[in-house]
RNA sequence: GUGGCUGUAGCUCAGUUGGCAGAGCACCGGGUUGUGGUCCCGGGUGUCGCGGGUUCAAAUCCCGUCAGUCACCCCA
């Protein structure tokens, strides 16, 4: 079928029942954060373009070629957020939250936008659930953040999400390592694009997937062997706390993430059932980020989990997130009893009973069919004959048992039966 | 951005060497003028992605385009 309008390329509509599953996934991924004391924060979906170029980094693909940037009528350059952390840090700095008790612990959810070639698991608009813990550089906090992400996946029943862990070093050890790596890469036979990347962002070359590149990288120096004393200690402590928390991980010395602000602890959750877009979440510590957007020189750590990809992972593992019945009670009015049926629906809803009703003057058979499809436990049939006697027919849809109940007691009777 | 594959009903898909647009599921109605699920009967709900070309004739062949998908790249 052809309609005049379709969802823009790389986007999709979330319809029932998948949309219900989406809400359940957002809840499951954010509940562990709330249990760990993170509070909800909401920031704009677009920000000053410079916020992203400065924080995410101009050398990243995200900034250099994937941003939805536009000028508004006031001549400002704005960008739809390509990731969640920068806006949250901006808000924290703008409102001086770091002057209060530290760490500042926040969680958020919402869409991010990137102009990419769409593919299964890769969309131009995708939703993340994320948390940020800002202002304290404590390895126990790194472990908390990682464990919080892991708990979200665990609560959903995912068993094939693997946690990859690495340390990217800091301003003390990374520059020297970077030079060593660059020197090593300079001696390899690489294509023009990769050579350029080696110049701008040499660490990125490490997680190139092409076999011919991988083979050459076999002897590359690894950051793990070049960490300064402080970073090594930090990383060791993080691993110690993770062990305490019962979180399993794999060492991934070549794990590098696409955003430039990460330092020290870096992690990614991968799921093998998703094809080439295997990352379902990731994050890390960011030492210089707060300062780069005008705040104090304080460190922070956070993650972003992909809701869309988590849903794909659930499907890949054959996990169905419970699809609750649309309502508990379904009312079937006949003829002139409609007004009383509408009234009863209102009474039931006010009493906290989820209630739907057959609209559109369907026949009794069709209305009962609708009652069945709704998943309701009870159907209430009200016809003119019942009205005369001041009653309604209350039918248990599972057993088929039906009793007449006085309309005056209908709400309390139903509440009793449902409890 | 580059390359491969695929677009037929709401969904999953069939459609032969070019010859009237199909099935299952879903949906609606009836069998039962006041009772759902099972069963029976009936109903196709369609711009064959879109545009052009070849042909007496195109879902089918050719070109273009859009979208999806897979891989690279990148990432959630």
Written description of the protein model:
The protein has 16 helices and 16 strands. It is an alpha+beta fold. The protein folds into two domains: 18-173 and 227-316, BirA Bifunctional Protein, domain 2; 329-418, Anticodon-binding domain (Rossmann fold, 3-Layer(aba) Sandwich), CATH 3.40.50.800. The strands form three sheets. It has an eight-stranded mixed beta sheet with strand order 1-5-6-11-10-9-7-8, sandwiched between helices. Strand 9 (263-271) and strand 10 (279-286) form a beta hairpin. The chain starts with 17 loop residues before the first helix and ends with a helix. The model has no long low-confidence stretch (mean pLDDT 92). It binds one RNA strand of 76 nucleotides through helix 3, strand 6, strand 10, strand 11 and helix 12.
What's the quick description here?
The protein is α+β, with helices and mostly antiparallel strands and 419 residues long. The chain contains 16 helices and 16 strands.
Please provide the count of β strands.
16
- The third-level CATH topology of the largest domain is BirA Bifunctional Protein, domain 2
* Second-tier CATH architecture of the largest domain: 2-Layer Sandwich
CATH class of the largest domain: Alpha Beta
Helix content: 25-40%
Fraction of residues in β-strands: 15-25%
What would you give as the CATH superfamily of the largest domain? Bira Bifunctional Protein, Domain 2
**Low-confidence runs (pLDDT<50, min 5 residues)?**
none
The chain-level mean pLDDT equals: 92
Given the C-alpha coordinates, what overall shape results? elongated
The radius of gyration is 28 Å
User: How are the strands of the biggest sheet laid out side by side?
Assistant: 1-5-6-11-10-9-7-8
How many discrete structural domains? 2
Q: Give me the secondary-structure category.
A: alpha+beta
The number of helical elements comes to 16
Distance between the termini: 47 Å
């Amino acid at each position: 079928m052809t309609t005049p309008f379709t969802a823009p390329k790389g986007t999709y509509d979330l319809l029932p029942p998948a949309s219900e599953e989406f809400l359940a996934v957002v809840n499951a991924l954010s509940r562990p954060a709330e249990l760990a004391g993170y509070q909800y924060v909401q920031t704009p979906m677009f920000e000053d373009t410079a916020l992203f170029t400065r924080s995410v980094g101009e050398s990243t693909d995200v900034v250099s070629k994937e941003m939805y940037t536009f000028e508004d009528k006031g001549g400002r350059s704005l960008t739809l957020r390509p990731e969640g952390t920068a806006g949250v840090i901006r808000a924290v700095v703008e409102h001086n939250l770091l002057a209060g008790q530290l760490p500042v612990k926040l969680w958020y959810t919402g869409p991010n936008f990137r102009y990419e070639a769409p593919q299964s698991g890769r969309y131009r608009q995708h939703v993340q659930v994320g948390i940020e813990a800002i202002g304290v550089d404590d390895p126990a906090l790194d472990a908390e953040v990682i464990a919080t992400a892991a708990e979200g996946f665990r609560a959903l029943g995912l068993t094939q999400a693997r946690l990859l862990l690495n340390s990217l070093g800091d301003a003390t050890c990374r520059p020297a390592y970077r030079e060593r790596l660059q020197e090593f890469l300079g001696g390899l036979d690489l294509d023009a694009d990769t050579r350029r990347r080696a110049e701008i962002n040499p660490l990125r070359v490490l997680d190139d997937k092409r076999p011919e590149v991988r083979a050459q990288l076999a002897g590359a120096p690894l950051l793990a062997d070049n960490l300064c004393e402080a970073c090594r200690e930090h990383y060791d402590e993080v691993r110690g706390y993770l062990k305490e928390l019962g979180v399993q991980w794999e060492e991934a010395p070549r794990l590098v993430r696409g955003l430039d602000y990460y330092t020290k602890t870096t992690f990614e959750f991968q799921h093998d059932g998703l094809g080439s877009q295997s990352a379902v979440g990731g994050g890390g510590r960011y030492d210089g980020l707060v300062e780069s957007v005008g705040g104090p020189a304080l460190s922070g750590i956070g993650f972003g989990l992909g809701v869309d990809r988590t849903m794909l992972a659930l499907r890949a593992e054959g996990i169905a997130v419970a699809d609750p019945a649309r309502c508990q009670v379904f009312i079937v009015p006949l003829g002139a009893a409609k007004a009383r049926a509408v009234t009863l629906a209102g009474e039931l809803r006010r009493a906290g009973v989820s209630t739907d009703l057959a609209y559109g003057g369907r026949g009794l058979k069709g209305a009962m069919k609708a009652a069945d499809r709704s998943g309701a436990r009870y159907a209430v049939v009200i016809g003119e004959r019942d009205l005369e006697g001041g009653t309604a027919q209350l039918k248990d849809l599972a057993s088929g048992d039906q009793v007449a109940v006085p309309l005056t007691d209908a709400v309390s009777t139903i509440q009793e039966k449902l409890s």
